[in-house]
């Protein structure tokens, strides 16, 4: 009799556990997918990788991880679906997205991203005692502009424009000739360049103490008139954030 009761109790407990077991086996992972903008990016474009095409299943997506060249190293991760990236070389990159939900589900999706070449690669980076692009009102931030030529050029020019009222001070002119023209800073190199050469300049920006908090843009362009004319913007992943 006791054995019969034990068998019935065991069977009853097993039946109660079945719905949970079935639910666990039916739990599906998320589905990874992403789009690329602009549609035909060059080495001078900020490429936006947008994972909003990804779909959650039984649990919400909580983490997006990006491997920009499918080398097995996660290059960026965030709880936001969009990420911005520069590709410093032309070619085809296998970009892999991993999406993770809060139930432990995970999926990946790889897409070829074609990056076209450009006459020059012009990048702007910031250096501050805070995060790279952040500065306090009344403080200062250093700016580096690096220009890599991908074709021969006879002479090279660079212009940079900061928000009105902000003071600037050249730190390293990169062997160029510096001058001011109104609100513009200008650098000129009169020599000939071969493809593959680089020049860099560094300058300091002083932000007025009365500057409201917010994001501010720095604009610029690299140019040459010979042998093939070009006038291309200087790009940075973000502007200056005044805190």
Quantity of strands, as a count: 19
Backbone structural class? mainly beta
Outline type? flat
Helix content: 10-25%
Strand arrangement across the biggest beta sheet: 13-14-11-17-18
Task: Give me the CATH architecture of the largest domain, please.
Answer: Sandwich
Evaluate the radius of gyration: 27 Å
Distance between the termini: 78 Å
**In percent terms, what proportion of residues is strand?**
over 45%
In the predicted model, the low-confidence regions spanning at least 5 consecutive residues are 1-6, 18-25
Q: State the CATH topology of the largest domain.
A: Immunoglobulin-like
Q: How many helices?
A: 1
Number of domains: 2
Tell me, what is the CATH class of the largest domain?
Mainly Beta
The average pLDDT score comes to 89
Q: What profile does the largest beta sheet have? A: 5 strands, antiparallel
């Amino acid at each position: 009799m006791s054995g019969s009761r034990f068998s019935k109790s065991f069977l009853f407990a097993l039946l109660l556990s079945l719905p949970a077991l079935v639910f666990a086996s039916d739990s599906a992972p998320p589905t990874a997918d992403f789009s690329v903008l602009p549609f035909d990016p060059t080495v001078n474009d900020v490429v936006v990788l947008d994972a909003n095409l990804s779909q959650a299943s039984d649990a919400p997506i909580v983490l997006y991880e990006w491997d920009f060249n499918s080398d097995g190293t996660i290059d960026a991760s965030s709880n936001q679906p969009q990420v911005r990236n520069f590709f410093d070389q032309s070619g085809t990159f296998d970009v892999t997205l991993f999406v993770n939900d809060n139930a432990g589900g995970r999926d990946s999706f790889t897409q070829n991203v074609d990056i076209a070449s450009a006459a020059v690669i012009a990048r702007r980076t910031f250096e501050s005692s805070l995060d790279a692009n952040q500065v306090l009102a009344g403080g200062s931030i250093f700016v580096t502009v690096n220009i890599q030529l991908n074709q021969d050029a006879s002479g090279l020019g660079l212009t940079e424009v900061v928000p009105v009222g902000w003071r600037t001070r050249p730190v390293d002119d990169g062997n160029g000739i510096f001058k001011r023209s109104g609100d513009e800073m200008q650098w000129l190199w009169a020599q000939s360049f071969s493809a593959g050469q680089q020049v860099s300049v560094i300058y300091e920006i002083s932000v007025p103490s009365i500057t409201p908090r917010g994001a501010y843009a720095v604009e610029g362009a690299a140019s040459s008139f010979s042998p093939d004319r070009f006038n291309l913007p200087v790009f940075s992943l973000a502007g200056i954030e005044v805190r």
